[in-house]
Amino acid sequence: MARVDRMAAFAMVLLSAGAAGAADFPQPLPEEPVPTVGELPERYPDSWIFVQDLHFNSLPDGRAAIVDVGIPNNNLRGQIPVAQFGNLLPSTTRGEIYVGETFYSRLTRGERTDVITIWDTKTLTPKGEIVLPGGKRGLFVTLRNSLQLTNDEKWALVFNFTPGSSVTVVDLAARKILSDIDLPGCSLVYPTGPRGFTSLCADGTMTSVALDAAGKAGPAVTSEAFNAIDDDPLFMTPAMVGRTGWFASFKGNLRAIDFSGAAAKDLGGFALPKQEGGASEWRPGGWQVISADRAGLLYVLMNPKGGEGSHKDGGTEAWVVDPKAKTLVRRIALKNHSLSIEATQQEKPLLVASRPDGSLDVYDAATGAFVRTIVSVVHDPMTMTAVR
Amino acid sequence: MSGLDKFSEKVTRNVARATSRRSLLTLIGGALTGAATLPVLPVSRAQAQTHGGGGAPVAPQSSGNPQDPGDQTQCDYWRYCAIDGFLCSCCGGSPNSCPPGTEMSPITWIGTCQNPADNRAYIISYNDCCGKSSCGRCLCNRNENDRPMVRPQANNDINWCLGTSSSVYNCSTAVILGVALEQQ
What we know:
heterodimer; A: 29 strands; 6% helix; B: three-stranded antiparallel β-sheet; 8 strands
């Protein structure tokens, strides 16, 4: 009996609450206009990052999420398509995002079109495109350095792979192709000097190509071999500190390449300090394993079970490294097994670690304290690019 | 320019050598064994959970031939020693045939795998099947001896649906090309 009474009392509270609510709000909510579509600021805050979704279960339908990692909710601010092993490249000087992508006229068949699509940062609508000739844009698991900018961001550099290698130089403002440069045996593009690029080559060297005012290849300079590809290769995506690219190697060495001059210069490197506690040994592991903050500290995603073949297995810690002092500043224990990391370019940076399930874990980069998880951002968060 | 030309010529010849199947065969048994063909997801074990590799396994399939033993839907089937991608056996194809309506890529990667039944080493060609979207079942990913994009011939992140009418990747086969000659 007592229980029934309690339930009756509860029901009465509910009823009275409903009655009180109507009395408290004599006016109904206003009518809302349709259609209404959101907009973003033209220039994104520096707590935002682009998270690129390879979407391995449906490669023609890749995309990128634009995510604010600095706030507790409403984190996913918008999406743009990045089709079939596409590449995403935000401009830092114009309100534009460039996407290199590949389409077929009948989705999976028909005529192939490779294109750079130009997206408006504010409306997230396409404002133009530049068709890339030859159906040769390189298709592989996303690497940032297959699409890059040079010449004060006026030109784009597109890496092609057929399996012959070449680079297409594109004038973004005039929306036209300037040149195609064969570069067999070398891969990807690392902007170099005022107007040019460097490629890493299969023999362990790198070749820098300066471009003339018309975008044609000028003098090329090939370095000594420095990349021990058989024994201890460099991951392809560097962390950029100014014009210096810091590359991590499979076995835990860091190497600096200076891309500021007309020809890239190997500045040498150092080994991450050996640490106890690895199940076999600590090695960098994951897809995008190194990132830098504005102060020039490096963050390296580390896997305790390092060994031959472990380089894409992801990691459980992020090691913070001061490349000037060549010291390990801090080890950040990650809450979850992670596959890529990226530091925001805020004054007080956040470290974002992407998880295989497409969620992001966010940490205070200065203390390593866990801040928040942002769930289910994309399917396959291989590549992340912080707003700069 | 002449420096670049010379460099290009040198590397062109190297690439030509490295990408002809005959030359590749001569490399088998060396350090390249175990490299693979396909666009693959890194972070294999974790990622496989979300790409048909986790949870209950696909119902087992076998050749029925005691000389070709094992479950063709599992990564540990002997021919898959250097495979990467969705297994065609789970996608309407088989270890040596593409699913109906796809196109088999002529540009492939190869490995040498030991057959546990007859104890012979076989040359296996990992032809991709192309022209339909990702199969999404039975993702298999091994990265031993995989090297970054700087060395494409040893990199399994590349979509090898090259030389086909569509570059859209569906799944991967593991075709016997022959018995490997002497291992180095």
